[in-house]
Structures are given as C-alpha cells and as structure tokens.
C-alpha cells in the first residue's frame, strides 16, 4: 500500500478492510510496532554483546555487532515512520461502514474510539443496507424499519459530527462497473468520493494557567474502560484492546501527571465538514448538536504520589 501510494500510477487508493478487530490491528501496527521493535532489538543487541565475543573464538564466520543492530533499527524505524505518516496524513481518511444492528454499532463505537486514540482520521460513516422508503412502508417491514431508525439515531449520537452516507438495501448484489457507478452516485449524491468530507482535531498539547494539558479526542469512550499513566517521557493510554504510548514534548519533562478526566469536549467535536447543501449528519440531527468526548490529562509542577489510574 505504501509503495503504491508513494508512486504516481493511481489517483486514489481504496482499502476494503477486514472485520473490525483485524482492521484495527492493521492500521495501528506502525505505531505499536515501533515500541516493540526498540525493545526486541535492545534485547538482541544485549545478548549479542555477550555471545558474539565468545562465538568469535569458535567460528571464523562474520557475526553481527552493535553497528549491525543500529542500522537494522534505523532502517525498520524509517519504514514504520513512513507508514505512520501515510496513515495519519491529511489526505488519508477512514470511513466506517455500519449496519443499524446492535453488534455492528457496538463494534463501530469501539473502532471509532481506538482510531481516534491513534489519530487515524474518520471523515464519514456509511449506513449500509438501509430499507428504502418503499419497503419501509410495507406492513411486513414496518418493525424492521422502526429498529433501523432507532439504530440510525444511535449511530448519530456516536458519530454525530461525521457526515452520514446512506446506502439503501438493493434487490441484488452490486456487481459490475455500471452497478457500482450507479450505487456510488446515489451514495455520494454529487460529493466527490475522493474528497476528505470532514476534519477534526488531533492530539493537542496546551498550556492553561500554571498547568499543561494533553487533550485526546476519544468519541464513544467509556470512562471505566480507560487507564491513563505517565511512564517515563510517555503518556500511556489503554483501552481494553489497545494501548498507545504518546511521546510528550520536552516541556512536560519536569512536570507530574496530576489528573485525567473524560469530558464533553466541544460542540460538534471541533470538526469542520465539507458537505453538499442539505446533507445529513450520521444520525440526521442538527449540525453541531453532538459533543465529542475527549481525554484531558493535566500536568503540573507539584508532586503527586499517583501517576496513573482510571479516567
């Protein structure tokens, strides 16, 4: 993907990801792998520092020294940094595809939170396989249409700032170029599929009064599911399935983590959207009605015994 994105053969790359957990492991790999790689190479280098001098007395073949491990680390870290930059670039976006069903909505909630934790930008949510109006009016489908509308509202509460794209249930599978083109025109309704439809704030480091703050947008997060701790020069935020170590600016080095809380953020999540006139939000509500949650970690110069805990 990185090689094709860096080349000039394609105007746009679309990656149809696997189910939620596998997709999250894929897109968060560059960030997670950097810490694991540093640890693994440090262990290997330490072992080789003891074993290699002894082995050289027994064999005549060349053996790796510290310089080899340093070059390997630099090469792999450069590649991982390139992948991370590609995934978090302003031209890259994630679009959540949701059917209005309980299990799927819960998965989308978790995905939205964890993508935000790793600063992977979501710019739209696609409500898929929605009953068309003609079918929803039939007595046989009336209850299903009611449940779908409840699901739509719940998705709106979760992803309110994001533009909502509705894909109606079709009579048959959408296959072939002509069918895909018709489906795309109905889905985007004049908007460019290649455009970034919505942008939001990333991680912010701010100074207020005598304290400094790290603010991380975490839409859909539950306070009991988050654990926050200061580890060395990193702020470590953990969810039940993911953990991110966020490197802190040097100005935070002499300070101590004083508190962490999950609050309501700003109206609309501070997002700005590019929408066609009259376009709906994910839940069909008024623009800016939803509030995006954010984690606010406060740092101060005073000493505190506790350096981690639940948000």
Description:
With 311 residues, the chain is an alpha+beta fold. Among the domains are: 1-92, no CATH class; 201-310, Sandwich (Immunoglobulin-like). The protein has helices spanning 2-6, 20-27, 29-56, 66-87, 102-117, 133-136, 142-159, 177-188, and strands at residues 94-98, 122-130, 164-168, 198-199, 204-208, 211-217, 227-231, 234-238, 243-247, 256-263, 272-273, 294-300, 308-310. The strands form four sheets. A four-stranded antiparallel β-sheet has the order 5-6-12-10. A hairpin with a 4-residue loop joins strand 8 and strand 9 (243-247). Helix 3 packs antiparallel against helix 4 (66-87) and helix 5 (102-117) packs parallel to helix 7. The protein is globular, with a radius of gyration of 24 Å. The two termini are 36 Å apart.
General shape: globular
Percent helix among the residues?
25-40%
> Which CATH class of the domain at 201-310 applies here?
Mainly Beta
CATH topology call of the domain at 201-310 = Immunoglobulin-like
Mean pLDDT reading? 78
SSE pattern: HHHHEHEHHEHEEEEEEEEEE
CATH architecture of the domain at 201-310: Sandwich
Question: Which short descriptors sum up this protein?
Answer:
single chain; 13 strands; four-stranded antiparallel beta sheet; 311 residues; Immunoglobulin-like; alpha+beta; globular; 36% helix; 22% strand
List strands and helices in order, with pairings:
Elements: H1 2-6, H2 20-27, H3 29-56, H4 66-87, E1 94-98, H5 102-117, E2 122-130, H6 133-136, H7 142-159, E3 164-168, H8 177-188, E4 198-199, E5 204-208, E6 211-217, E7 227-231, E8 234-238, E9 243-247, E10 256-263, E11 272-273, E12 294-300, E13 308-310
Parallel strand pairs: 1-2, 2-3
Antiparallel strand pairs: 4-11, 5-6, 6-12, 7-8, 7-13, 8-9, 10-12
């Amino acid at each position: 993907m990185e090689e094709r994105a860096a080349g000039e053969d394609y105007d746009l790359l679309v990656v149809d990801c696997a189910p939620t957990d596998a997709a999250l492991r894929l897109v968060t790999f560059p960030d997670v792998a950097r810490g694991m790689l540093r640890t693994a190479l440090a262990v290997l280098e330490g072992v080789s520092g003891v074993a290699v001098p002894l082995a050289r007395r027994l064999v005549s073949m060349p053996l790796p020294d510290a310089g080899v491990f340093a070059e390997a680390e630099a090469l792999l870290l450069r590649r991982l940094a390139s992948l991370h930059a590609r995934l978090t670039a302003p031209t890259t976006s994630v679009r959540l595809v949701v059917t209005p069903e309980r299990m799927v909505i819960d998965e989308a909630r978790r995905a939205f939170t964890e993508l935000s934790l790793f600063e992977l930008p979501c710019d739209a949510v696609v409500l898929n396989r929605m009953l068309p109006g003609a079918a929803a009016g039939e007595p046989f489908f009336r209850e299903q249409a009611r449940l779908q509308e409840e699901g739509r509202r719940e998705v709106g509460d979760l992803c309110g700032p994001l533009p909502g794209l509705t894909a109606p249930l079709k009579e048959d599978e959408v296959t072939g170029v002509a069918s895909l083109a018709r489906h795309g025109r109905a889905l985007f309704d004049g908007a460019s599929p290649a455009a970034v439809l919505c942008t939001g704030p990333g991680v912010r480091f701010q100074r207020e009064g005598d304290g400094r703050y790290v603010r991380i947008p975490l839409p859909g997060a539950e306070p009991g599911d988050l654990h926050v701790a200061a580890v060395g020069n990193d702020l470590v935020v953990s969810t039940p399935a993911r953990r991110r170590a966020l490197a802190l600016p040097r100005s935070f080095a002499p300070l101590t983590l004083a508190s962490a809380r999950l609050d309501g953020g700003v109206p609309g999540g501070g997002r700005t959207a590019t929408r066609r006139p009259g376009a709906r939000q994910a839940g069909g509500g008024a623009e800016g009605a939803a509030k995006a949650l954010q984690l606010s970690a406060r740092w101060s110069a005073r000493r505190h015994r506790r350096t981690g805990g639940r948000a």
